[in-house]
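dumping this here before i forget
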Amino acid sequence: MPEEDLVELKFRLYDGTDIGPFQYSPTSTVSVLKERIVADWPKDKKIAPKTANDIKLINAGKILENSKTVGQCRAPFGELPKAVITMHVVVQPSLAKAKTEKKVDDIPRKQICSCAIM
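structure:
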């Protein structure tokens, strides 16, 4: 594959640090990008994704779908020659984990009135 066809991407994390840049084929899917992010995630970060499903990728203000290709995602930037495209990474824990944590927080509490009637 000629080098001109490759798309150069880097991934901006929540604290402003970057993963990459890496070169991808325009036919690579967003799922492949997410797997690479999970594999290359810095070990010193407090917040870390467990799986690729815990990650949301944002490009040009839009959340990217797993089935989209890199070529489809870079459409607004297609005119920029050899430019590195920065995609923002948002970590969201899976829904099952969030539900179990919520149940722990929903412990019934006694209602105590602290009103004073004068």
